[in-house]
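Can anyone check this?
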Amino acid sequence: MAIILTACSDRENKAVITISSDVDHPMAVIGLNERDFPEILQAYSKENLEVLDVESGELVLYQWLEDELLLAIELKGGKSRTLSITRSNTKPGNPEERTFARFVPERTDDFAWENDKVAFRTFGPDAKKRVIEGRSGGTLSSGIDVWHKKVKYPIIDKWYHKELQTKGTYHEDDGEGADYYHVGTSRGVGGTGFWDKDTLYASENFIRYEQIAEGPVRTVFKLYYEPYQVGDRLVSETKTISLDLGSHLSRYEVEAVCENTGTLPYLTAGITLHENKGTTIVNQSNGIYAVWEPMEGTHLGTAILTPQEVENYLKHISTHRDQSQLLANIKTEQNKVTFYAGFAWDQAGEITDIEMWETYLNDFAKRLRNQPKVTLTQKP
């Protein structure tokens, strides 16, 4: 009651928006940018805000990301929600369920990111150098590793501390999950490269990173890679990776160019098949390339999902470790490809079998095609 009365007393300075959707969005991240909502951004840019659901009086989670205001809300298909936005004198707290990312120099130079559902990491130049010099702790790979988490709060800092500062290890499940996944030189879950004839060529470890945003609603960062040779082509990649609250899939926007010609016909994204004991799921009309596989007495679903046209895909089976992979050759658009990649672990209790994993991915593709609509009904 107090929250609602406070909002009503400041009516002249309040913006009201209505958000509707044709399909269910268990967690929609709505971006209000200055191009579409100049009144809101000019009135509130970088301010502490109070965002309320008008009907329930509940606070709505928000985050400023450069010149965009991000709102995280649940939407039911065919229904709308009305939100009020006003200034607040109180800085928002750090919620337990949030996104998180950071560079991890204490374990060579990983870069790790997570939300309330999933966690990932990939490997930097020191990890590569250790392999070349024959020292322990190295990883020579641009593949994407995953951590099997089954709690909603962040675990990255806790698990690195457990591995590096205690007698425990993140390879054992103490109740929060564990690192059961082997990435090696494979693409892991969403690593990229270029398939040429009968060989997959790929970059090595990232050479530098740029952290753009880290907050309760969305994490965004960039990874830069040295060019790699594919026949007479020299391929260069820069990845902008983001992860939203509530999503099992990270978003990848990869700028991929051939430094000889300036263009590439496609970029290859892949997921490892490990020992080829999993079941493959392919739905080309929805851009889904996925696997459900056994792992350490549990099951893991992994996937690539792309809204862009795919030239072709292949299930490459090899006797060499880390080389059996499901690969999709995604056509470039203005030297870029966009796709989503991630996973679901049955022990997390939300997606527990292959049918549920396939349903989640099809629903995700449907949500991409049916974005929520936002209407400004009262200017601030």
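Reply from J.R.: I decoded it. The chain has two domains: 2-92+371-378, 100-349.
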